[in-house]
Each structure stands twice: as structure tokens, then as C-alpha cells.
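From the shared-data thread, chain only:
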Amino acid sequence: MKFSVDRPACWQECEACGDETVDKDSAIRCRKCGGLLAVRHRAPGPAGHELQELFDSRTPDSWGSGVWRFGELIMPGAGPEPVSYPEGHTPVLYREALARWAGVPDLLLKHEGQNPTGSFKDRGMTVGMTQARRVGARGVVCASTGNTSASLAAYAALAGIPAFVLVPEGQVALGKLAQSIGYGARVLVVRGDFDACLALVESASESLGLYLLNSVNPWRLEGQKTIVLEMLQQLAWDPPEWIALPGGNLGNTSAFGKALEEAVEWGLLTRVPRLLVVQAEGAAPFAQGFAAGFRERVRVPARTVATAIKIGDPASWDRAVRAVRFTRGVVLSVPDEEILEAKRAIDRAGVGCEPASAASLAGVRRHAASGAIAPQDRVVAVLTGHMLKDPEILTGGPQGEQARLSTIEPTVQALEEAMESTSNLDILPR
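Structure, as C-alpha cells:
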């Protein structure tokens, strides 16, 4: 179908064939061709500086959610009570030691690990779960490497909707799995990888009456757009030259590109930051596709310690290609060793993050070393998850730091000996 000239405030449109449907349609994909849907918006009333001033008037103290204060640009029909924790209002941090370590003097960190369940997923989930309630879903479902399931479980509990999460056997960090269980979701362990889990929920969700809340859901991306909107507002609407982010299923890459396109359209921006999408070397289909000019879609068996981006067949490929092209972006990959080195630097600087988040900083360091980031460029690296999301990295396993755990006798002498034997506390130079 196609709407008349008098369009609603927002609607859904197939990105493949252009077919349109109402905002309250429960479909995740186009009913006509199976393409991914996108949410489209009628231009908001105010624009440019007037729109900036409207959002600037909504302070964290006066406006609980850092997502819903941008509601006109996300889901105008949400009503007065969206399913909200609240979420958002995450900090932009400067740490001189990390700027020096990365070789980028003007480096900032947007820490999405400060959201309620410890990851950026909460921004998309508050919108997705609000839509689930709007369409009367009998239950919600997702496939997950951990963060999505934790967020879905929490927001489903808030909404009072049954939740089912499918996770790949032996591939989900304990911290994330514990959250899903604790919030009351039914956790189903699938004999297969993340891509097998996603294929299963996509094929079965509609026939079982479950509302799918993976990043293929267009409303999830609407919430994730606010990472960029909030960042721009925190920078007084003066955009950085680069925004660096981890690349897994590519939902954030797609959301960031959409946010920037709309920000230009509505007069919030006159200059577009470039996206730097960073993948783990063992799970880098998008980086391989970028290197080949995106002539074809690439799929790989995913292998990386960064569990949140351990995805070999990204669902939002086409959307992400558009985002990279619109922003003149760059996609690169870094080995696990560099991801863990970057994580150690972030942790020692007193910031902390999960391994997948550290891919952002590892990518910035590599890109800066190549000369592609100019010395005067401002770079914002997005940290997507909290330090405690992958505790095994810190406390055990081959990449763990169990050597930093020592058992001593309860005596002053034993403590003194331990202090003297500690020659390097791995504190970054200030």
C-alpha cells in the first residue's frame, strides 16, 4: 500500500520494495517481499535551532528517559506511558591517559554500559517493548549472544509480557545469562551459533504469536538512534569528525546512519561525522565486504572472545552499507589481542567495559596510527557494554587475569611481601 499525501506522524516502509504499512503493524518484515522494514517520520514541526532548543530544555532532572525525550523523532504515538526504566542519559567521558594511548588528543568515550541492564540494548528495547504492548503481543522473543536477552528480559518484566530468549550453546557470558534468568525470561539453549538462533526465531515468531525483538525489528533501531542524538546534544550540536563503534549484527551501525541522515534532514546538523565500524578479526564479514567495495554479502564462521559481536552473518547488512556510504565511513577489523589490550587500557583508566566495547578503541588506535585520523580530529568512541558483562575475561579462562589473584596468610608480613612482589600494577601513565 501507499499512503495519500496526508501522511501520519510515522509509518513503516519496506527498504527493498518501498511498500508501506501503518505504525501499529506487528510485522517485522515486509508482507509483500520479505524485506526489512524501516520507520519513517513526517518532519517534526520545529526544525534546526528551534528543535535543538526543544531538546535542550528537557534536562535529565526534568525528563526521566534519555530515549523518550526525543520521542517526536522515534514513536510519536507511544502515548504518555512507554515501557521505560528509564534509560539513556549516559556520559561522555574524557580520559587523558586513553587519548594518549590511542594517539588521538581529542578522544571522548560515550559509555552505553551505564544503561539499566548494562548495555546500549536498553535504548532499543524500551521502544521495541512499547511497540509490543501497542500491538498486543502475547509474548516477546529474541536470539542473543547475551546483551539483547538481558535487556529483553528486564523490559518484558516491566511490561508484564512473557519473554523467551534463545542463546547459542556454550557461547554466552555468565553475567549476561544470569540477568536473563534473574529477570524471569524463559531461556532456551540452542545447539548452534547465534545465526542459527536468529534464523529459528525469525521463522517461528509470527506463527507462534511472539513479537520478535532482535535488531531486525525497526523500532529497536529507533531507540538506538538516540545514542547519536544524545551525543550530539552533549557536544552542543557540534559533531565530531569520527564516531567509532563495534560491529556485530550491525544494528547500531544502521541506527547511527539513520540518525545522522534524519538529523541533517531536520536541520540538527550541517556536517556529518564519519562512522568507523570495528569488527573482531575472527568475526569480520562486514569488514571483508567493505574491503571488496560491498560487491557481495559475506558470511563467515564467527570466532572471537568479544561475545557481543561474535556474529558471522549480520542481519542488518544492507542498512549498514547505506550508513557507511552516507557517512563516508570506514570498516576495519582488529585481532582479539588488540581488543583485549584496549580493554585493559580502558579498565585501568577507571572506565571499564566489556570486550566488544573495547573494539571501538582498538579500531581508533589502529586507524590513527595509519594517519587516517588527523591530529585535530575529535573522535567519539562508543562503549556498548558494562565491564561485568563478560566477567570470565577478568577472572578465568585463557584470556583471564587470574595471575592477579593471590592467596596470602592473614598477617602483616604476608601483605608486605605481596606488595613488594607487585612490580607492575598496570596503571596507565597519567
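The chain has 14 helices and 13 strands.
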